Amino acid sequence: QVQLVESGGGLVQPGGSLRLSCAASGLIFNIYTMGWYRQAPGKQRELVARISPAGSTTYADSVKGRFTISRDNAKNTMYLQMNSLEPEDTAVYYCNTARTPNQAWGQGTQVTVSS
């Protein structure tokens, strides 16, 4: 059974930082391009960052220059460093494979940016 467990979310003020983690199991992690997704209330889930097995990265324009995606293949873990957070970043953040079909979605981790 594939499991994707996100952690590290929380409440931060605008301009603050968070580091999210994604622990994967039941998956040959190092062969997949992985991504971080987010979904805000009333909006579609969107892909905000992706990383290839070798470490090549791409970002949505809305987060470029502020977020950094990384992975540790030996630990089956992926990270999202989020800096200069804005209220518009408020969402539930999920990790998954970046190509369809996606794996089953985990619970996600809530990020709230508010003063």
Distance between the termini: 40 Å
Enumerate how many helices there are, as a single number.
Answer: 0
Mean pLDDT metric? 96
Fraction of residues in helix: under 10%
Low-confidence stretches: none
Instruction: Please summarize the sheet with the most strands.
Output: 6 strands, mixed
Query: In order across it, which strands form the biggest sheet?
Result: 2-10-9-4-5-6
Structural class: mainly beta
The outline comes out as globular
Beta content comes to over 45%
Cα gyration radius (Å):
13 Å
Strand segment count: 10
Order of helix and strand elements from N to C terminus: EEEEEEEEEE
Outline the structure in words.
By secondary structure, the chain is mainly β. It has strands at 3-7, 10-12, 18-25, 34-39, 46-51, 57-59, 67-72, 77-82, 91-97, 109-113. The mean pLDDT is 96.
Quick summary:
This protein has strands spanning 3-7, 10-12, 18-25, 34-39, 46-51, 57-59, 67-72, 77-82, 91-97, 109-113. By secondary structure, the chain is mostly beta strands.
Kindly list the characteristics that best describe this protein:
mainly beta; six-stranded mixed sheet; four-stranded antiparallel sheet; globular
Which helices and strands appear, and what pairs or packs with what?
Blueprint: E1 3-7, E2 10-12, E3 18-25, E4 34-39, E5 46-51, E6 57-59, E7 67-72, E8 77-82, E9 91-97, E10 109-113
Parallel strand pairs: 2-10
Antiparallel strand pairs: 1-3, 3-8, 4-5, 4-9, 5-6, 7-8, 9-10
